[in-house]
Description:
The chain has helices at residues 54-68, 70-73, and strands at 16-22, 26-33, 36-44, 78-82. The protein is of the alpha+beta class. It has a four-stranded mixed beta sheet with strand order 3-2-1-4, with helices on one face.
Amino acid sequence: MSEAPVLVLPDFGKVFEVDCDASKVGIGDVLSQEGHSVAFFSEELSDSRLNNTTYDVEFYAIIQALRHWQHYLVHKEFILNSDHEAL
């Protein structure tokens, strides 16, 4: 049995955290605060991106997260997490 994810409202007095990951078929990002999810974002990779290197796809996941949540993150310090060591 699975449960629907519970999202919390953003608190602009707290630090945001962005977690990014990529796979062979898509990217996924989570915006959170103090371990609680604020928002999710995912995207299926286009045919042209399927042949990109792991580095490029992981970096693309970061770029898309920052674009998607720029209204939360602009002019504010935040924590960015990626499981790709080179980034």
